[in-house]
Amino acid sequence: MPLYKTITVNVSTKVLIWKVEESESQLSEGVVLTPHCQKRMMGMKSELHRRGFLSIRHLMAIEGYVDHDLFYDEAGKPHLTDGKFISITHSHEFTGIIISDTKEVGIDIEMQRDKILRIANKYTPLEEYKTVANADALVRKLTIVWGAKESLYKIYAQHGLSFLHHIDITDFSLSDSETTGTILYKGKTSHYNIIFLEFEGYTCVYAIKN
């Protein structure tokens, strides 16, 4: 069972990361999906997406949950029936969840790719990164920024929220492991702690609402 990493953030918050190496049939063993989730999975054309989807259920099982404990609101945000907070992410061969007893949370895993240089101006002011040493470092930093904004977007879950205009990530160094973020939307401001880590060419970012 390739549970890749467990991070105990604090007494009430935990991150679990899975490396998807098993076949779809192996991952299906012991997993009972709700009709809604079964329909969602059967609509996935990519086997890797289906395997990732199933691996999330194994991560949930480690924390004592089954698929029937999970439901989605109208914005597509996942919730747990016991009232705890959950966020889910899937990127190629890695999946992850964050669960918190008391705080709203968001998580995102991204593969580090040069593609991010082409889309960066759509989600962050590029002039903020003129001092970054080289292209590799820039890809790494922009991937963290994207993951941070994606994590905050997952927490906020409001249609119309703009990565570029409404979500701000406090500048940080690649040698750091955390920063902060702010959402200013429709006159309301909310603040978040953001933690990030890198492994095997991937970046994981998770956010916790203050």
Automatic annotation (TrEMBL):
Record's keyword annotation contains Aminoacyl-tRNA synthetase: no
Gene3D superfamilies: 4'-phosphopantetheinyl transferase domain
InterPro entries from the UniProt entry: 4-PPantetheinyl_Trfase_dom (IPR008278), 4-PPantetheinyl_Trfase_dom_sf (IPR037143)
Residues of the 4'-phosphopantetheinyl transferase domain: 105-203
Gene Ontology MF term list: holo-[acyl-carrier-protein] synthase activity; magnesium ion binding
Secretion signal span: none
Keywords: Transferase
The keyword Transferase appears for this protein: yes
Source species, domain of life: Bacteria
Name of the protein described by the UniProt record: 4'-phosphopantetheinyl transferase superfamily protein
